Amino acid sequence: MDTDDVKPGFTQLRLEYSRDQYILEFCEEHNGKHYCSSALWKGNILLHGGDKGKTIHGPCITDKTGDFDFAFSLHCETWISSAVNWITRSSRSWPSHNVTQSIINHGVLFVPIGVHGSPKEDLEWRVSFSVAEKLLINTFTHTQLMCYALLKIILKDVIANDDECKDLLCSYFLKTIIFWISEELPSSVWKPDNLIPCFMRCFSRLVYCVEHSVCLHYFIPENNMFENKIEGRARDVLLKKLNTLHSYGWQSILFSDQISNFDVAMWNFPIEPFTLYVNDVEKIVQSSNLYIANCSLESYSELDIFNTGLLQNIWCHHSSLKQIYAYYISQRCSILAQRLPFAGATINNKNQYKQYKSCLSTLLTNVYHDAVSGWLMVASFFYKTKQYRKALHIIRYSLSKCTSDKLFFGMTLSDNYYQLLKLLSFNNKSVVYLLKIMFVDCIRFNENSALTPDELVMEGCNNEYYIPSTAYAYFLSVLCHYHLNDVRHCQDSIQDLKIVIGERYLMSHVRITAEAYTLLGIALQLFGDKESARQAFLQSLEIYTDESNNSAAMRLL
């Protein structure tokens, strides 16, 4: 083995002596030394293989029908020095001493393939531990095998369906991850009762490996198998997909058709037809009538709606109806809190403190119906009371909830949403539950609202506003950093605001999109960039031309 200037896990094979001249047909001479060429090795086998139509496929020879790959490897009967640390590292409960000795006694294989793009690629051979890995898998408990199988199912049926991700991961990486975790955990942990925790531990490790672009070879840790492979945009897309799947815990396996197409009746899952479920959701998010109805409720007495809903919730015995009442009670709390007087930045007496606590507790109830817009209203409260750092902390939390799987009025459902709803349908989740965990509402400031930031108020006229939550989050972040004299983060927030507006992220209706541009104009104006602010206001008017209901028109005067 000649491993100088060769990536760990690979080697060159230098010929020292041979009585058979035939071996020279596989060799290339460099600086007076002969090296066995992996390329010539495969080419010679292909040439003298008998059947025509065979092709070279990576390290293998593929038969003419494409059904079989044959890997003609060389056997090294001794354990190699680059993997010697594994012997002492693995002297724990797993693998056992006998298995370790069997692996060492077998040695390794040299597979005819080099590092892709290497100047010595045709002379390099990959060190293969396939027999050792087979011996390790033979020691697996049923739980370890299940974890491996479930990871492979997710890889094959879910991740590989995405064109940008399908060629990034392979089952060998998953096997490697389970080897490492098996070495770390006592064998007693791998039992049926712990299947879900063990599976999630393996899944979490996979996410970690992709996030940090590192997956160390089990026998030769110096070989990072993700190097020059899991990186750039492809890595970001893969990581986003993995994080989304991981957020559903063990239920992520239900995204697999071969799992979800089982006869689930035997599992006693209370499932309603998937198609009907998706149709219901699609009708909700695309219903103009429902959107208008939600907005129209604000024209009625908020206190009457709140009290009526509260009484109905107490008296009602039907769980679905109770959820609906609770949802709308929470939604109304946002409107109710905006009507409550509070002392602003100063709390000088007991009465003012009582007002402060009343407004805050009402806003916290509002969080129940939508974590994004609900918490942003709480952030507005802290901003109005000049508690800017608290506001920023809550804004960051709200933005963490603005994931790509969220629903909003007026959207068109993509394939990803269909897959997500398919998962939810297995849990028989109600529409109200769906709205609560997946729906992002816009920020609604009523006329003369006590929570409207002063920067939005024009000449003492505190109008009503309908603002997309994502745009408002970054706008409020700009205001907080501005008052904290944090110029760099202020500029960063403005850039983030531009990005979400450019992508129309979680916004669809014309009016609220126009309001997002108005927010951008105000932020730029506040920062002293008057010309860019003017362009933002003009863009707002171009999108929503009703000057009587678009404050951008007045801001241009």
Please, could you describe this protein's structure?
This protein is α+β, with helices and mostly antiparallel strands and 557 residues long. The chain is elongated and about 100 Å long. Helices cover 51% and strands 7% of the residues. The strands form 3 sheets. Strands 2-3-1-9-8-7 form a 6-stranded antiparallel beta sheet. A 3-stranded antiparallel beta sheet has the order 4-5-6, covered by helices on one side. The protein has 23 helices and 11 strands. β4 (55-57) and β5 (60-62) form a beta hairpin.
Query: How is the CATH topology of the domain at 140-262 named?
Result: Poly(a)-polymerase, middle domain
In the CATH scheme, the class of the domain at 140-262 would be Mainly Alpha
Q: How many beta-strand segments? A: 11
User: Uncertain regions: pLDDT < 50 for 5+ in a row?
Assistant: 262-274, 298-316
Gross morphology is: elongated
Largest sheet, order of strands side by side? 2-3-1-9-8-7
**What characterizes the major β-sheet?**
6 strands, antiparallel
Count, helices? 23
- Return Rg in Å: 31 Å
- Classify the oligomer: single chain
Helix-and-strand structural type? alpha+beta
What is the percentage of strand-forming residues? 5-15%
Distance between the termini: 79 Å
* Share of helical residues: 40-55%
CATH architecture of the domain at 140-262: Orthogonal Bundle
How are the elements arranged and paired?
Elements: E1 10-15, E2 27-30, E3 33-36, H1 38-47, E4 55-57, E5 60-62, E6 69-70, E7 74-76, H2 84-89, H3 97-106, E8 108-111, E9 124-128, H4 130-137, H5 142-157, H6 171-184, H7 195-211, H8 232-246, H9 257-260, H10 274-285, H11 288-296, H12 302-315, H13 319-339, H14 350-366, H15 371-384, H16 388-400, H17 415-426, H18 431-438, E10 443-445, E11 465-467, H19 469-483, H20 487-502, H21 510-526, H22 530-543, H23 552-555
Antiparallel strand pairs: 1-3, 1-9, 2-3, 4-5, 5-6, 7-8, 8-9, 10-11
Helix pairs in contact: 3-4, 5-6, 5-7, 6-7, 7-8, 12-13, 13-14, 14-15, 15-16, 15-19, 16-19, 19-20, 19-21, 20-21, 21-22
